[in-house]
Write a structure and sequence with these properties.
Number of domains: 1
Number of helices: 7
Structural class: alpha/beta
Strand order of the largest sheet: 3-2-4-1-5-6-7-8
CATH class: Alpha Beta
Number of strands: 8
Helix content: 25-40%
Strand content: 15-25%
CATH topology: Rossmann fold
Shape: globular
Distance between the termini: 45 Å
Amino acid sequence: MDQIQFPINMAKRKRFLEGILIHDVSCKRLEARRSDLKYSNIPTLFIHGSMGGALSFNNMLKRLNAKFAGEKVLLVIVTFTGKLRFIGDWDARLDNNPLIQVIFERNIGVSYKREAEWINQILHVLKFKFGVEKYNAVAHSWGSGSLVYMGFANGQDKDVPEINKFVLLAAPINNALHKWNHLNPDGSSQKGDSSFKFMEINRKYFPETAQILNVYSNRKNRKTDGSVPNVSSQSLAYLVRDTVKEYREALVEDLSHFEMHENERIDDMIIDFLWRNK
């Protein structure tokens, strides 16, 4: 287990976190349905980044609900000891585009490998307790890296639902790269951190069913959103574009790293990719 020093009392932090969570367990029921969207019982997981928590996606989930795109049905808390807590009441048969918020209580200094294991455990429960066969996910920052890592590490696991669609926001795929680095003409890079090298070795295991929208921001023309270099996010194309069903990249201008989950342009991109009638 990683040894992490937290600056505040853990019991107080836990009570504060759970207060936010319990207060905001679900959005309103869908009051209307849009003719331009399709509805199903395929859940979409929302996975925050490092130092994130309930507040990372609360506002986005409310906005998506207000736009009649989906309905928040569950909170899944991964405790400091790695145990899962499910909060909410979900009838998994309903075609209400269910939204599931994932919260890591331990969210500083955790490796992609560890978070990927937690996500895989959540998916295992979703399949065997709720009968989920396919899932979507929206992830921000470090959560995106963990989600992608899981696809390479556990992509052939038959005991979890099948990947349908991923939306990645400010994904740090190759943490060895800086904004002044360049990718090779084929999309590869001359250096990679240990997680990237693992994913590169295991490229063939990423599920072919996956459809991916990879969104990153060029803030003030600096080739970064202020935290994640564009080339780090773009490194994903080399790993998956010849494997997955669909891969897209979308560059948005002048959004900071944390504005990526607080902007309605991003909301609309998510709605279009996950649920739009094509």
